[in-house]
Specification:
This protein has 138 residues and is α+β, with helices and mostly antiparallel strands. The chain has one domain. 56% of the residues lie in helices and 14% in strands. The longest helix is centred in the C-terminal third of the chain and has 18 residues, at 96-113.
């Protein structure tokens, strides 16, 4: 697959600890210092070659590939216990086709779990980030 000229932005809702783990990942992988302001939402997307976009594209691509395993590993019960006001919108950049596949999988998981998107995003992204997150912490 060839790299796109621009990455598409899309959002996932994450608990604060999973958001922080994602920010740590982006700092380690791409040197992103201020993740909460890194991606400015725009209709034109993010140009290829942007280090943060490259890192999130790889993260989302890997997540889509391993989605069934991450679904099995996800702690949906812990994610359901997160306070409704404790979710943060995280913007990710990825190839437009990957964004479509990710959205489809998240929606299917939400339907199967009979849960909202915040719960599903948090549980599955936490599972993907592995031991970087602890949904049980306050």
């Amino acid at each position: 697959m060839t790299s796109p000229d621009r990455y598409k932005l899309f959002g996932v809702y994450l608990s604060e600890d999973v958001y922080d783990s994602l920010a740590d990942f982006l700092y380690e992988e791409a040197g992103v210092v201020e993740y909460d302001t890194y991606f400015e939402t725009s209709d034109s997307g993010v140009p290829a070659g942007d280090p943060g976009a490259e890192a999130t594209d790889q993260l989302v691509s890997d997540l889509v590939t391993a989605f069934a395993d991450r679904y099995d590993e996800a702690d949906f019960d812990a994610a359901r216990r997160v306070d409704d006001d404790a979710f943060v919108l995280a913007h990710l950049a990825a190839d437009p086709r990957t964004v479509t596949r990710a959205r489809e999988r998240f929606q299917a998981a939400a339907t199967i779990q009979d849960a909202d998107s915040r719960t599903v995003h948090t549980a599955i992204v936490a599972a993907h980030l592995g031991d970087r997150t602890d949904l049980e912490s306050p």
